[in-house]
UniProtKB/TrEMBL annotation:
<feature type="binding site">
    <location>
        <position position="196"/>
    </location>
    <ligand>
        <name>FAD</name>
    </ligand>
</feature>
<dbReference type="GO" id="GO:0020037">
    <property type="term" value="F:heme binding"/>
</dbReference>
<protein>
    <recommendedName>
        <fullName>Flavohemoprotein</fullName>
        <ecNumber>1.14.12.17</ecNumber>
    </recommendedName>
</protein>
<feature type="binding site" description="proximal binding residue">
    <location>
        <position position="91"/>
    </location>
    <ligand>
        <name>heme b</name>
    </ligand>
</feature>
<feature type="site" description="Influences the redox potential of the prosthetic heme and FAD groups">
    <location>
        <position position="90"/>
    </location>
</feature>
<keyword id="KW-0560">Oxidoreductase</keyword>
<keyword id="KW-0223">Dioxygenase</keyword>
<feature type="region of interest" description="Reductase">
    <location>
        <begin position="155"/>
        <end position="408"/>
    </location>
</feature>
<feature type="domain" description="FAD-binding FR-type">
    <location>
        <begin position="158"/>
        <end position="269"/>
    </location>
</feature>
<dbReference type="InterPro" id="IPR023950">
    <property type="entry name" value="Hmp"/>
</dbReference>
<dbReference type="GO" id="GO:0046872">
    <property type="term" value="F:metal ion binding"/>
</dbReference>
<feature type="active site" description="Charge relay system">
    <location>
        <position position="101"/>
    </location>
</feature>
<keyword id="KW-0479">Metal-binding</keyword>
<dbReference type="InterPro" id="IPR008333">
    <property type="entry name" value="Cbr1-like_FAD-bd_dom"/>
</dbReference>
<dbReference type="Pfam" id="PF00970">
    <property type="entry name" value="FAD_binding_6"/>
</dbReference>
<feature type="binding site">
    <location>
        <begin position="282"/>
        <end position="287"/>
    </location>
    <ligand>
        <name>NADP(+)</name>
    </ligand>
</feature>
<feature type="binding site">
    <location>
        <begin position="212"/>
        <end position="215"/>
    </location>
    <ligand>
        <name>FAD</name>
    </ligand>
</feature>
Amino acid sequence: MTTATIGLDKQTRDIIKATVPVLQEHGEKITKRFYQLMFENHPELKNIFNQTNQRKGDQSKALANTVYAAAANIDNLEAILPNVKLISHKHKSLNIKPEHYPIVGKYLLMGIKDVLGDAATDDIINAWEKAYGVIADVFISIEKDMYMETKNKPGGWVDFRNFKVTKKVVESDVITSFYLEPADGNPFPAYQAGQYVTVKAEIDGESHDHLRQYSLSCAPGEGVYRISVKREDAIGDNPAGVVSSFLHEKLEEGSILPISAPAGEFVLDLEDTRPLVLMSGGVGLTPMISMLETVIKEQPEREVIFIHAARSGRFHAMKDRVLEIADKYDNVTNYTIYDHPEDDEQCDKTGYIDAEWLETILPTNDAAFYFCGPKGFMRAAYQNLKKYHVSDADIHFEIFGPAEDITA
């Protein structure tokens, strides 16, 4: 990364740094315009980019923050390396290739020019063209290594591979699990608890395929991949989820589903032996279940506190399995929080998780904390842990979009 930075002359770096305030103000407008221009000229790329996130603006915001961070750290790109690796895992899962980068660069520069108008001088555009080339090379290099590592694993593959649905299990009113095994019957790699796969939904009547990422919800080494998918129903102006509806309604035992190899850096650290706190909200349960199933196999003596929040019992997936684990292992404690319990449903807390309640149930703040769920849940979880004086190094989460959505 340092070598790449040296490739930018001082004048170029100074121009990039001078554009930081402009990017802070107009970044999202620029990235929205970029996506609009790119999809108009390359509609085939809609196969890769989540169009729901496009409509919500999440993708534009995430890209704007990445561009802003690169500009702000142009003298020290090593500072953004963790974020680059996180994004590269997403890219690997989506099978982003080197040939995609020039296309993105072309329309990103056009977006800057369109939004800034005359303020985007030739010097500014030329500087950003150089900077984009350097940053793109960093991504391409990291992703090349990731693809190579994935391909060289026993049973590993690049691009998409057909898996067969061997079992379909309804877990709650809105969550269904799909058990997947390779359609070719050949070996397939293990993964780390917390990782995800990308599924390619080939839906009749749709103009393009749809890619979605789902956490693997069972422990590695069980001879199967399992994804547990929440059906996103239409609410107000938001339409029903195209892919989740397809999976729930059309995918049956025996169906074929193309998926990418497991990816992601939000993984359970099995070198840590301190107490483990797993917190989830709604379908954020899926990577937490994988971590729970893993820790009882790999660290059966480790203290585990498993906390799950759901609207009510009807929306609580895998409850019986967690209870079974908690009953079997004295070192595992399970807590359930229901927002609106129904018909005298039993739970440990009604409403929401708060810092005061956490202090009454947690043995220490010197522990490893992992959490996943909707953004609102994750924001509250982060703030509650900070009130509990948990070190940032012990707080683990993964989110699509800028971390500031959670930590601000």
